[in-house]
Amino acid sequence: MRWRSPIRGPWLTSVFGAVLLAALPVVTLTGLLSYVAYAPQLGQAIPGDVGWLKLPTFQWLTSPAWLYQLNQGIHVVLGMVVIPVVLAKLWSVTPKLFTWPPVRSPAHALERLSLLILVGSILFELATGVLNIQYDYIFGFSFYAAHYFGAWVFIAAFIAHVCLKLPKMISSLRSRSLLTELRTPLAETRPEPSDADGLVSSDPDPPTMSRRGALALVGGGSALVLLLSVGQTIGGALRPLSVLLPRGRVLGDGPNDFQVNRTAAAARISPDDTGEAWRLTLSGGDGSASLSRAQLLEMPQHTADLPIACVEGWSTTQTWSGVRLSELADLAGVGEPASAQVESLQRSGAFNDAALQRNQVLDPDSLLALRVNGADLSADHGFPARIIVPALPGVHNTKWVRSIEFRT
């Protein structure tokens, strides 16, 4: 089989490779930071037991309040944006996949094995990531565990590939001027000189696209993906265009008109659960308390503008009012809590409880929220009370709170 495109060659492959060399480490790092944000030291990150792949953990910051919103927005949106570049890079090296003999030496075998693992892992990470954004828990396995371990396979293969190919990429990039190629029209497009890797066709067809056109096509594809996804993170006029990040598109109404990830009906929350008989139970120290919503509303109320940012990439910032968690800790007799365990009334689905770090409990903007945007929380947004903490992953801002245990 002959591959006869006249624009294939080491230079074009290296341009795509350079873009991925800059972008993929950022996608990987933000993904690993997202895992740390889930507080694996408190036993609530997924997967929990990762053996020697355990990350160094630290106390996830609560300031700035948009920290997780920024981290996860970059991870999801940039991961989407690089898809056209990944596909273009695979197209550019297609001839190498069909070289014969497939293995010429032990060193060549190692290179091809690392390439196979690299391509397989990046396609797995991108495909499962995109499907997780589009659909709710469709996998027959834990997406979070598969994504975490798959990331480490990709990291190992990526480092090996860069070590093997970086000198070749640098020399290929220096062989032609990017500005010159961007000024070269279709009529003047010529094949690159023959190369040892066999990317350049020995019998090329007449060009139907210039290298400038190829770069514009791929760059335009990435720009379109950016336009159709970034609005879920930054909001504003671009939010309705975010058709590529459909999670979180179920909305409330009135002052509660913002994203709902899990409705009260889906969580099997009944009106009896949240009616007059509802009480918040506080425990952990020498004191304990059982408070009605009316009693909570009589306590000093604090208001803060805080985002909810979901692991799937959507986020929203609203104005929340309620009782500071630090004041509830004092009421429970734990003035200096090491952590807190929050339990929900939720009967179905994951994340019906969450552990909060010391700094997340004591931050002055960390609230047991009772109202949002000047109105009572709706049932879908956690009535009668929910947690809202700066820079906390969205699913840990527990809704329909029934108890908080402050731990020493």
UniProtKB/TrEMBL annotation:
What InterPro entries does the annotation carry? Answer: Mopterin_OxRdtase_euk, OxRdtase_Mopterin-bd_dom, OxRdtase_Mopterin-bd_sf
Molecular function (Gene Ontology), one example? oxidoreductase activity
Specify whether Zinc-finger is a keyword of the entry. Answer: no
Tell me where the transmembrane regions lie: 12-38, 73-92, 113-135, 141-164, 214-238
Looking at the keywords, is Membrane present? yes
Region called Disordered, residue ranges: 186-206
Which keywords are on file for this protein?
Answer: Membrane, Transmembrane, Transmembrane helix
One Pfam annotation reads Oxidored_molyb
Q: Where is each Oxidoreductase molybdopterin-binding domain found? A: 274-407
Q: Which CDD domains match?
A: SO_family_Moco
What is the protein name stated in its UniProt record?
Oxidoreductase molybdopterin binding domain-containing protein
